[in-house]
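ok so i was messing around last nite and threw this chain in just to see what happens. nothing serious, just curious
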Amino acid sequence: MTDANATEGDASGADGAASGRAALRRIALGETGFERATVWSAVGLALSYVAFDATAAVGVGAPATTGVLAAVAAVGAVAFAATGGGALPTALLAYGPFAGTLLRGLGPTPYAVPGGLGGPPLSAVTAPLALAAAAAVAVGFAAAVVGFLVGRIRE
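result:
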């Protein structure tokens, strides 16, 4: 082995490590920005929160509404990940719908001001939001893996 070969071997090893870090960065952060995930997370929170009012008006119960909202959030997260969203943006995207759903399902009386006079304690809001964060991380990372695999199959 000559010195030139040793140098070339070291360079390819360094390139391999750099490409490995780039792949991890792409999986974690994705190719699409956090901006889309943030906007759709906020929209998902608002829509899922008021969906309970709309579905109750037509006679659909809260458990059915919760199931449909969770399924739509999971499918949306997989689709976002399949189009280049990474694990962290996908978790952020899933957080909004889960937060809105869990706030209505487990949180205080809708439209009450927590911590205010006669209102529920602040923990009535923080507990569902913490649970939504845990669910969003779990679903977001699982959706990122599934979406990444779907994206690889499509190529």
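not much to say yet. The helical segments are 3-29, 34-57, 62-82, 87-106, 123-154.
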